[in-house]
Amino acid sequence: MSAITVTELTCACLDEKWRRRWLSGERPTTRSFAPPGGLPVYGALFHRLADAFVGWLTDSRRKTPSLKVGQELWNELYERFAAGELDRLSRKGRLESAYHLSEALKAFCERIAALRARIPAFKSWQDLYLANEFSLTQVEIPVGDRAIRVSGRLDAVRFHPERAIEVVDYKLTHGIRMKHDLLQLAIYTRLLALARPGLDFLGTLEYYEPKLHEVAVSRADLDALFADAVLPAL
């Protein structure tokens, strides 16, 4: 039985040359690089700070339910998690990147404040977040008479008051990678459906550029993407 990560599988779906190298036993890079002269946006750092903050919000030992507006949330995120990182970027001369990251994190705080407001009987942040940085390990996807094990880590799984469970992927750049991002989301959603059968899912891409640009994708569209682009590669 073969094993692959979500990131590797996404590359295999989109790049035949990459797929041939992987099948030959290589482990080609899955990293993508910004165009020369582009502004470094520190996506990994954004993910780490967002994850730490949501983990803090959802910790039942802390009195966080009273936080309800974006500015309050940003104040807490900045003081507890982001200040040191932004200061380090600034000292390295990355002032534009530090500003971009801070604006993206502010937009993230405005976003979760808006999500909180749509839950009428909100009692704690666990009413919104089912999980953040949720690991899916060795989930078996049937392919003919065999199965392929796929592993990955979801940025967030949220409760949606109207549309069941929402699988969320954060991005800091949009550009030409929309197809990549949609395929990755389709794979994540299929893995979660296999790991948690019977639940109804939809997918959301949240681009912080630094203002929020949201792309919501229905379960039917995600299933179609998986059937059209992922299954053939598998």
What keyword list fits this structure?
7 helices, six-stranded mixed beta sheet, 234 residues, 47% helix, alpha/beta
In words, what does this structure look like?
By secondary structure, the protein is an alpha/beta fold. Strands 1, 2, 3, 4, 5 and 6 form a 6-stranded mixed β-sheet that branches. Helix 1 (6-14) packs across helix 2 (16-23), helix 3 runs parallel beside helix 5 and helix 6 (178-195) packs across helix 7 (219-233). The protein has 7 helices and 6 strands.
The SSE string, one letter per element, is: EHHHHHEEEHEEH
Mean pLDDT: 91
Beta fraction: 15-25%
Shape by Cα distribution: globular
Give the CA-CA distance, first to last residue.
12 Å
Helix count?
7
Strand pairing plus helix content: what structural class?
alpha/beta
Low-confidence stretches are none
Strand count, sense and barrel status of the largest sheet are: 6 strands, mixed
Please give the share of residues in helix. 40-55%
DSSP E strands, number = 6
Alpha carbon gyration radius: 19 Å
Secondary-structure map with pairings?
Blueprint (H helix, E strand, L loop, with lengths): L1 E4 H9 L1 H8 L19 H15 L12 H22 L3 H23 L11 E15 L2 E15 L3 E8 L6 H18 L5 E8 L3 E6 L1 H15 L1
Parallel strand pairs: 1-3, 4-5
Antiparallel strand pairs: 2-3, 3-4, 5-6
Helix pairs in contact: 1-2, 1-6, 1-7, 3-4, 3-5, 4-5, 6-7
